[in-house]
Structures are given as structure tokens and as C-alpha cells.
Design goal:
This protein has 22 helices and 16 strands. The protein is of the alpha/beta class and 588 residues long. The chain binds one RNA strand of 77 nucleotides through strand 1, helix 2, strand 9, strand 10 and strand 12.
Length: 588
RNA sequence: GCGUCCGUAGCUCAAUUGGCUAGAGCUUCUGACUUCGGAUCAGAGGGUUGUAGGUUCGAGCCCUACCGGACGCACCA
């Protein structure tokens, strides 16, 4: 909020002191260590180093050209050449007052909106959504919300697995073993049963495998009967997807499965071959290195036993079929042509890093005019308490549906225990929000690239860095609103609120950094920055709440200022949780 | 073998272009308490950031080597 102003003034001062300086690197940020001030820049040390100047001398020079007296206390120089800014409490009071009036929420929308396509979740038809989908789903949904909050255009695209080799087996299962009653009761479970059954038969009996293959060929060549079954499987799966996404509050702008791109795959390969990018190899068609990248960075080369060898990207299998590389290229082409994005994000697990490096490199060779940013936003695994991938006790994949049910049940026990007088329906609704919120928060809190250990006790804990703690802090911010009569009037606030107590000032300073935090999330695709920001906000609010009585404050101006801080904290906390995809509750 | 990622307090995790004194929670111990409002707050303990070097005014972060771990490496996605 104030940060962009300080940064602009700093850049002007630097431009006058060093006309050739690269201003895009002259940045202001919140102080990492509050003893030095509220904001700082480390840019001058870097600039001085490049020019072999004395950094303290440069800092002194820039300080003399810098005019921020309307916002800050006198600017300080510290250490090797830091510039430290401390916001005047009168300025803080003014920003808080304007936020309380509803003029802003410490977020400046971008003046240069980008179009960002986000590819996430990507479940498979005829299979249940499971624990392996949750990080992609939560991360993608959260990033979409952050980009939108900052004013960017977002297209969320669910790239459903609806066209793979598994359908050959499913079609055999459908004709040989379908239990229509079971299908009616739980379609996903029945389809999963069919798949497993036929898969096992294939391993024992080659004739079954041949049948699966021929059913798949029939399907892919447009056989009406198989197509009808396939459509039914799709429809039944979509019901499951819709149900779960509704419960999670996750929305997609478009849902285009792999089958959508099927008609284009042959053309993709033909074009790549015609352009000399792909060629036949061992019966398949593959893309090889063109040698333009340094060997160590080339995703199409691999070092085996001390020798650099081809590490090709296969776009057509030796049996003539296409694989996900081909589909991904066609998908990229479609997104490029349809939305002209500035940025495309793929939210998938870490093991796919090589695939995406190969994909991006191949596409850029195919379409040299393509300049958008392509990012593989990858994440680590969810582990059980034994440190191996999270499974059920019997070793099966944990289904998302079961996970949500258990979260809601466990939260219900807590809510009913803490608040037995609430009507049961309300307890259930609160438990739903707490349970699912806890699951999401536990997933978004760790750095996405690290694996994390799943623990019910930890994610539903009422203390520590958890969703329930934040949701509880939110209910505390709301308790004033319920005391209608005694509430100070926020409609007619003075231009600046008197902020005096240490806790008031620290809370106010932290509120100001909401927008900065959201930008940090988008630049590294890391929602954990927002989690930690909100946790710290809740902490500062609690300190304020303990030490700064609102309704009991003697002075009316103090009462108003504190009520405004509560109100603004409430909005930031509520908005922040909402951006994480977490619903708030009024009481819990 | 090669590649990617990781190794931070007893445990689970943070650490914002390399920045000033590496922070939280859990656990342990102590304190506040007939509360506007304790699912809270305050305080204490706990660290050679895997090891050894290097670059830098400054390194958890960058470079090199080594140790330990996860994952990937031609027709699954």
C-alpha cells in the first residue's frame, strides 16, 4: 500500500543519483528484522558493488535525494548500506482509517493485467479422486484466486484423463462383468472394480489383453456402441467430480479432457515431422536435441556412463498410438490460440519435471513466435507417519471422498464438544468448514516443493499454525460486530486514527503488507507465504486483543480506532482465508 | 551411472532480488485468570543450518567436493 509509493520515490532518487541504474531491481520490502524499521531496501549495496562504489556513500547520496517526509520518519542508513524506512504513526492511522471506510484492503490491483491459464486437478474418468489430487487441486485453486485478487485474467482448465489405454479394459469389463445394481449405487467404485478385474485378467490371459486392445481401437475409431459406453462412464465420473468440487468450493472455467484434443494429434506429429523437429526412431516418432542448448541444460540429452546420449521426447508410439506428450502439445497449441495467455501454469507433482522441460522446449521450437511464460509448478508428496507415501491401513490409495468425510467427522467431534449448545445442523455446517479448511491449510502451509507428513491431530489442532486457529481468530474479530449497540460508529471516521499502543501499531503495520504478500505468492507460486502472513496477523491481533480493550477504552477516539482495527483485521483475515479457499465461520 | 529435489531446535516446519541478532508451533517448565473477549496471552529452555572448502562487505540461500535421503531416466500420465 505505502510500499509502492516508497519504491517509486526511491527509484526516482536512485535515477537522479545513478542515471544508468536498472530501476527494476530497486525494490522496497518489509523489514526482515523489525528493529531496523518498517521497510528497507538492499538495492543500493548491489548497485554500489557493480560500480565499485562505497555503498554507505551511495546510501548517503540517495538518502539526500529522497523525499518521503510526508510518510516516514527520517530515513536511516544502517549496516553496509541498508536504507530503513519507518512509517509515521499518523500515516498508519490514515491508511487504516481509509481501509475501514472501505476505500481499499491494502491491495493495489495491477495496472498490467496478465492472462494466466492454470492447469490443475486433472482427475481420470472411471477412477476416484484421491489423495494424489489434493495438492494440485488446492494449489491451483488458491493460485487462481490470488491472481484474480490482483486483477489478472485467469482461466482455470481441468485437463481430464478421459482417453487413455485404460478404456480398452473398462470396455471389456463393462461387457463381461458389469453389475448394474452396484453401478447405480456407487458408479466410481463399480468402474474401478471393473478396471482392476480386467487388468488382472489381462496379466494372466493374453487373449483378454488382445480384446482390450481391439475394444480401444474400436472406440478410438468411432464405434457407436463403445462411444456410448464411454460417454456414460464420462458422465458418471463428472457427477463425482462436480460433487467433490462443490464441496471443496473449487471451480473451473473450462473442462477439456484429453479426448477433446484427439482429432488434432495426428496433425501435431505431421507438423513436427515436416518441420524437422521430430523423426522416426525404433518404430516410434520422437523429438531429439537440436543442439542449441548447453548440453547440461538440454532436456533431450542424458548422460549415461559418462556419455551424452539422446533422451528423446516421444510423440507417437511404435503401435501408432499417441501419448500424453502429443496431447500436451496439442493442448498448449489450443490454449495459445484460444486465450493468448501470458503465462501457463501446470500444477503437478515433482516427478514430471523432465516431461515438462521437454514439452516446453519442443513447443518453443515448434512455435518460435510463442513468448508466454510456461511454468511447471510442481509439488512434493504427502507422506504417512512412517515417511512413505500416504496410504490407508490396508495399503490402498486414500480416496478424496473418504478424506473429506473423515475431516468433517473429526471436526464435528471437536465442535460439538466445544460448543454443545449450538443446533446440530449448525454444528455440522461449522464442522464442514473447519474440517475442509484444515485439510486445505495443512496442504498449503508447507513449501510446496517439500514432502509433508499428514497428521489429523496436527491439522485439526486448535493451537499453532492451523486453519482452526485462524478461523477462531476470525470469530474473535467478529464478536464486536455482534454487539450492535455498543459498537463504535465506523461510518464517520476521522482522516487519521490515533494509534499509540505498541500492539495497535504492530497490527496496523502488518495489515499494510497484505498486498505485498499476495504479490510474493504470485511471483513464486507459493501460497505458504500467505498462510504465514495470516498466521502472523492472527498472532498480532491476539496480542492487540489481549492488551487493548475496545469497548472498555475510556477515550472515545481510542475506542473508535480500536474498533476500526478489529474491523479491518476481520476483512483481511476473512479475505485471506477465502483466497486460500477456506471458508470462515461466525462462531465455532 | 546421470539428472532433479531435499538435509535447519527432540518433533513438524518457516526464513521475501544473498542482508543487519536463523524464526514459529508442538513438547517441557513458569506466569497472567470470578475475562468487553482465555480455543487466549506473556516468559524460559532448546541451533557449529548434514560435513569440508570457496566466492562475497555479508551465505541457510551462490560455487566445488563428500555423506545421507526421495524421485526420475523410450513408447503410463
Amino acid at each position: 500500500m505505502l510500499l509502492p509509493i516508497l519504491q517509486e520515490r526511491l527509484q526516482a532518487a536512485v535515477a537522479s543519483a545513478l542515471p544508468d541504474a536498472d530501476l527494476s531491481r530497486v525494490l522496497v520490502r518489509p523489514c526482515t528484522n523489525a528493529t531496523h524499521g518498517d521497510y528497507e531496501t538492499t538495492a543500493l549495496m548491489g548497485l554500489a558493488k557493480e560500480r565499485k562504489m562505497n555503498p554507505r556513500q551511495l546510501a548517503t547520496d540517495v538518502q539526500a535525494r529522497l523525499d518521503v517526509a510526508d510518510i516516514c520518519e527520517p530515513v536511516q542508513i544502517s549496516g553496509a548500506g541498508f536504507l530503513n524506512f519507518r512509517i509515521r504513526s499518523e500515516t498508519l492511522g490514515r491508511v487504516i482509517a481509509s481501509a475501514a471506510r472501505g476505500d481499499h484492503l491494502f491491495v493495489v490491483k495491477t495496472t498490467r493485467p496478465r492472462t494466466v491459464v492454470i492447469d490443475f486437478s486433472s482427475p481420470n474418468v472411471a477412477k476416484p479422486l484421491h489423495v494424489g489430487h489434493i495438492r494440485s487441486t488446492f494449489l491451483g485453486d488458491c493460485l487462481a484466486r490470488v491472481f484474480r485478487t490482483l486483477g489478472h485474467r485467469v482461466v482455470t482448465d481441468n485437463h481430464i484423463g478421459d482417453w487413455g489405454t485404460q478404456f480398452g479394459m473398462l470396455l471389456v469389463g463393462w461387457s463381461d462383468h458389469l453389475d448394474t445394481a452396484a453401478l447405480a449405487a456407487d458408479p466410481i467404485a463399480e468402474m474401478e472394480r471393473l478396471y482392476k478385474l480386467v487388468n488382472a485378467r489381462c496379466k494372466e490371459d493374453p487373449s483378454v489383453r488382445d480384446r482390450a486392445r481391439s475394444e480401444l481401437v474400436k472406440l478410438q475409431s468411432g464405434d457407436p456402441e463403445n462411444l456410448a459406453i464411454w460417454r456414460e462412464m464420462q458422465r458418471l465420473s463428472q457427477v463425482q467430480f462436480d460433487n467433490l468440487y462443490t464441496r471443496l468450493g473449487v471451480q473451473f472455467d473450462v473442462t477439456l479432457g484429453e479426448s477433446f484434443y484427439n482429432p488434432k494429434l495426428a496433425g501435431v506429429v505431421a507438423e513436427l515431422e515436416a518441420a524437422g523437429i521430430a523423426r522416426a526412431s525404433e518404430g516410434a516418432v520422437a523429438v531429439f536435441s537440436d543442439g542449441t542448448l548447453p548440453t547440461k541444460e538440454d532436456p533431450l540429452l542424458i548422460n549415461r556412463d559418462g556419455e551424452w546420449q539422446a533422451n528423446p521426447f516421444l510423440v507417437r508410439k511404435s503401435d501408432g498410438g499417441f501419448n500424453y506428450a502429443t496431447t500436451d502439445l496439442a493442448t498448449l497449441e489450443h490454449r495459445f490460440n484460444t486465450w493468448a495467455p501470458d503465462e501457463i501454469l501446470y500444477i503437478t507433482g515433482g516427478p514430471q519435471q523432465l516431461h515438462f522441460r521437454q514439452l516446453f522446449q519442443t513447443y518453443r521450437r515448434w512455435r518460435p513466435g510463442f513468448t508466454a511464460r510456461l511454468e511447471h509448478v510442481w509439488f512434493g508428496s504427502i507422506l504417512g507417519s512412517d515417511g512413505t507415501p500416504f496410504k490407508t491401513r490396508s495399503g490402498e490409495t486414500v480416496k478424496l471422498n473418504d478424506l473429506l468425510l473423515e475431516a468433517e467427522e473429526r471436526a464435528f467431534v471437536i465442535v460439538a464438544g466445544k460448543n454443545p449448545d449450538l443446533p446440530e445442523a449448525e454444528q455440522h455446517e461449522i464442522a464442514r468448514r473447519i474440517g475442509i479448511g484444515a485439510l486445505k491449510y495443512a496442504d498449503l502451509l508447507p513449501n510446496r516443493q517439500s514432502d509433508y507428513v499428514f497428521s489429523w491431530d496436527k491439522l485439526l489442532a486448535l493451537t499453532g499454525n492451523t486453519a482452526p486457529y485462524l478461523q477462531y481468530a476470525y470469530t474473535r474479530t467478529r464478536s464486536l460486530q455482534r454487539k450492535g449497540g455498543e459498537r463504535p460508529d465506523l461510518a464517520s471516521l476521522p482522516d487519521s486514527l490515533p494509534l499509540v499502543a505498541r500492539e495497535e501499531l504492530e497490527l496496523a503495520r502488518h495489515l499494510l503488507n497484505f498486498g505485498f504478500t499476495l504479490e510474493a505468492v504470485t511471483s513464486d507460486y507459493r501460497p505458504n507465504f500467505l498462510c504465514n502472513y495470516l498466521y502472523e496477523l492472527a498472532g498480532r491481533f491476539s496480542q492487540f486483543w489481549e492488551n487493548c480493550p475496545v469497548l472498555k477504552a475510556e477515550d472515545p477516539a481510542t475506542r473508535t480506532a480500536r474498533a476500526a482495527l478489529c474491523e479491518v483485521t476481520s476483512r483481511v483475515l476473512g479475505t485471506g482465508l477465502n483466497i486460500l479457499g477456506i471458508e470462515t465461520v461466525e462462531r465455532m
